[in-house]
Each structure stands twice: as structure tokens, then as C-alpha cells.
Specification:
The protein has eleven helices and 13 strands. By secondary structure, it is of the alpha/beta class.
Length: about 300
């Protein structure tokens, strides 16, 4: 088993280390990533102003998608995303294939395709769901669109008892929305509310003037900490300061199999390409991946801000 002294805490929805090894020792023992995001499609039914994964990359044939999943067996968690992953024409077959092969299967979705009819099937096939909400109706519609469909899907997830997190992309001009999103997530029973900031990739290049770090992140953390106590929220709040997390922590498999590390400020398009999963083994690609330490520390939540 990869990293036997690392366990997944379902209550707080993150990996934690319960052993005595140093981070260097843990990294040295790894032959695969701890977790990665597998993009099924770049197609999407929303038009988010900060989208870092715009359309334009074709998905490999279904049989090759399954072959790539087989190469990742032994990895602890796989996150299916897009675009909107539920638009992928063989979405359900992929989930059924992945379910017995990974310890944790996660769906990162805009929730617009989650219905009363299919939510129980999702519950059988995934461990939890991530859904992005960017504020109250007018603000969410301005940034992402389809507020009613997103909230309807999120309510289906909550009603079915599927563990979930809400995500918000923080911009200074939507600071006031933080309270609304925490309140909404808490009311619906979210385990975690994750605050991210834009990275200069895809459509977000034009928003990077709104990049925040350091003192600004600390102010958001302190505000949400105070509001959590004041309002009695149970939802767990994490905030990502990209400069503190460090470069390249996230590994993405794009629909064509290209493996990238993100975000990497020093590289074109803010990503570092280090191979293609359709053409190499996952173990070979892991050996060429240069951000192992940042990867592990991020997913053990050693570099996140907690409110």
C-alpha cells in the first residue's frame, strides 16, 4: 500500500500522517502520486470567468481512458473533473470502473447534471463531491451562471447524504460572498469550504491582477475564523495561499493523457508538462515529477491556512 502511515480522515476530508517518518522519508517511499485530478473532458455547460481549464483538448478513446486508469492503480485518491465531467458520454462507465480500483473516488462537478434520478447512483460510486459556489444568485450568475441548477444539484447531494465540499474562488471584489458561501455550505451540511485564488492559466490570466497572498489571505482567514465562531458554523474552512503551498503541487491528467504539474509560475501557461500517461507508466512519470515535496505537504494540509 502506498504510504501506509497516511490515512484519510473522513470527518475532516483530508489525508493525515499518523506515523513518525519525516516528509523526506515519506516522499522517498512513494512510487506514485498520493492524489491526482483526472480530466474526463474539457467540455462544459458553464462559462466561468476565471476558468483555468478551457475547452480545446480532445479526450482519448474510451479504451485508452481505462488503460490510463489501470496505470494509476495503487494511488490512493482519484478526482474526476473537467470541464464538466458529467458531460463525458461514458461518465458512468468510468466511475464504475474506478470504484473498486481506488481507495477514494471524488467527483469535482458544477452539480448542474446531478438530479433526483441519478443522485443515488453517484452515492454508490463516489466517496465525496466537490461543488463550486461563488456567492449569492446575482454574483454566482455573474461569475459562473446557472445558479438555480447548481443549487438544485447541491441540494440533491445534501439530501442523499453524500459527503461534499463547497469551493469558492476568492477575488478581492467578492470578499463579502465568503460569508454567504460558508453559511450555505454549513446549512446544507458541507464537510469543508475551500477558498482558492485564481492562477494565471486559461481565462484566469486576465484576472491575475487580483492575485492575493500573504496579508490579504491572513485577513480573509481571520474574518472567517471570527464569523465561524460568531455563527456557530460546523463547516471546516481551508484557504489556499499559492505561494505558501509552493509550485506544482497539483498533478492533472488532461483528456489527451498529458500530465502536468500546476501551478508553476516560472513556466508558460503556469504549468509544467512532464509526460503523457497514455505513453508511459505512472511510476516513470512520478520519477520525472519535480515537485514531490510540495505535492505531499499540500495533501497532508501542512501548507494550508485553516479558519
Amino acid at each position: 500500500m502506498l504510504l501506509p502511515t497516511v490515512v484519510f480522515n473522513d470527518k475532516f476530508q483530508h489525508f493525515q500522517h499518523i506515523g513518525t517518518e519525516t516528509t523526506d522519508e515519506l516522499v522517498a517511499s512513494m512510487s506514485l502520486p498520493l492524489s491526482l485530478t483526472f480530466q474526463l473532458t474539457r467540455g462544459c455547460n458553464l462559462s466561468c470567468v476565471y476558468c483555468s481549464e478551457p475547452p480545446g483538448i480532445r479526450t482519448r478513446p474510451f479504451e485508452q481512458v481505462l488503460e490510463m486508469l489501470d496505470k494509476l492503480v495503487g494511488m490512493r485518491r482519484i478526482i474526476f473533473s473537467g470541464g464538466e465531467p458529467m458531460l463525458y458520454k461514458r461518465f458512468w462507465e468510468v466511475l464504475e470502473y474506478a470504484r473498486p480500483r481506488f481507495e477514494k473516488v471524488v467527483l469535482s462537478t458544477n452539480a448542474t447534471r446531478i438530479t433526483r434520478e441519478n443522485v443515488d447512483r453517484i452515492k454508490e460510486l463516489v466517496d465525496y463531491v466537490d461543488v463550486t459556489v461563488d456567492g449569492p444568485r446575482w454574483q454566482h450568475d455573474l461569475i459562473r451562471g446557472n445558479y438555480e441548477e447548481v443549487m438544485r444539484g447541491l441540494i440533491h447531494v445534501s439530501s442523499a447524504g453524500i459527503p461534499f465540499s463547497t469551493i469558492c474562488v476568492y477575488l478581492p471584489r467578492n470578499r463579502e460572498a465568503m460569508h454567504y458561501i460558508c453559511q450555505t455550505g454549513d446549512a446544507l451540511g458541507a464537510i469543508k469550504m475551500k477558498v482558492l485564488t485564481p492562477i494565471p492559466k486559461g481565462k484566469s490570466v486576465d484576472l491575475f491582477k487580483d492575485f492575493v497572498t500573504g496579508d490579504e489571505i491572513a485577513k480573509v482567514r481571520d474574518f472567517l475564523s471570527e464569523e465561524k465562531v460568531k455563527n456557530g458554523w460546523h463547516v471546516r474552512i481551508t484557504i489556499t495561499d499559492w505561494l505558501k503551498v509552493g509550485q506544482g503541487h497539483a498533478i492533472l491528467v488532461e483528456p489527451d493523457g498529458r500530465m502536468i504539474a500546476s501551478p508553476v509560475w516560472d513556466e508558460s501557461e503556469c504549468v509544467h508538462e512532464f509526460g503523457n500517461l497514455a505513453e508511459s507508466s505512472a511510476e516513470e512519470l512520478w520519477q520525472t515529477y519535480p515537485y514531490k515535496d510540495n505535492h505531499l505537504k499540500k495533501y497532508l494540509e501542512q501548507t494550508l491556512e485553516l479558519a
